[in-house]
User: Fold this.
Amino acid sequence: MSDSARKTVRLFHTAPALVAVFDALAAELAPWVVLRHTVREDLLKRAIDLGQATPEVIEAAASAIAEQTHDDIDAVVCTCSTIGAAADLANATSNLPVFRIDRAMARESLMLGERILVLATLRTTIEPTVSLLKSEAGAMGRAPTIESMVLDEARALFLSGDTDRYLQAVADGINAAALDADVVVLAQASMAAALPLVKAVNAPILTSPRIGFAWVTRELSGLAA
Assistant:
């Protein structure tokens, strides 16, 4: 792709570990995309402290996302599902596209089955993910059965920063919970790294980083055409 067709994307994170995840995805899937990163851990912490992403948290996140829409940026991507609604709010008033990384995953899950299991390690992520699934299901004329579960053991490890044990706890939770689902949705991007540790599970397991980034790059390719 020519230099004139290159795109610069600002990724808006609430977890620093996702910087390396998306750098690797960009190198693999879209080397013509230049990534810039903003990390705002405080927004996720506020949501956790309050027990949910309150309207005030969403408005603050939307304002922070809107500040990333500079002239040298072609798109902004919010990689945090807890504040995913902030991406939609920012997109409504932005002159640049603002994507939420989990939207493509939600759409794909609805194509794979009627029984969807949403797994998260933070309670703050469940409601935004289920809400997104219901919204996308309505747009597609579908009425799936959506169940959700918080992996409490993994939650404590996530908050303590014990990455290795966190990922193993996520994998153990998937192995135990995925028996009766047509498709499993991992609500947090940070859970994706646990997939290599998962034992044989019949249901497809969807994570937002790869699916979402591939979708964003397809959208950007259309803009470049």
In short: DSSP finds nine helices and eight strands in the chain. The chain has a mean pLDDT of 92.
